[in-house]
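Board notes (copied after class):
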Amino acid sequence: MVWGSTFIILMMLFSSWSWAESNIQKLETDYGKIFIPEYKDWEMGRDMYGMPFIYFSPQVNSQRSNISFTYTGVDLKVNLAEMGQDPKGYQELKNSWAQSVDAKPLEYKTYKSWKNLHGHTVHEVGFDYLFKEKKYAEMSYYVDCRGQLVYAKSLRLHVNNDHAPLMHKLVSELDCGAK
């Protein structure tokens, strides 16, 4: 009876470990590995639009929300918190981009710094804009991943608000490892 109970417990543990592993995507880069959750019906694109990894949502409101991940290989000696002290540089950059594509800036999201579930510091800043009569929400995440910078950028139609917490969860659960 003891052996039977032990066997059942061991089988439950092994099956839960393999289940957890199958629900994590490992993104290999020249600089290291990025680990993110895998979502049902979301698709990973590789080497698209100049980004090594872009995770696409299912189509909603004739659009697919997306979040890209780039392991930059840059040592994190840059003081990213300066974005929170003086957001003018970020806003000027976004205004310049908006003007170049005939978009209209609507709102800038306040800079935030927080720790994700793996203890990595995340610097977050965002921007809403109008482009071709559609309102978009963009968020940029700069993740201090063991002293190197992982950059993630999400983009969605503003009405696809259900995707915002999922994309935030991806960054919150993001982990990394050395190559």
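Comment from the instructor: Residues 1-22 have pLDDT under 50 and may be disordered. DSSP finds four helices and ten strands in the chain.
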